[in-house]
Design a protein that fits this description.
59 residues, mainly alpha
Length: 59
Amino acid sequence: MAQRDVECKKKVDLIRRWNTAESAVQQNLIKENRAVLDRFLDLQDAKVAAARQLLRTND
């Protein structure tokens, strides 16, 4: 059964098609939410910088 499943997926090129569709969805979500994602990245960068500073002062 598993072999037939794999054969079918290869025959219809499912993996490539699925990947292409999923990538398009994700790229659109990134574009739609760019401001929120950029703000999140800024906050993450600030947390990492603060942690590094704490590690330097504790040496």
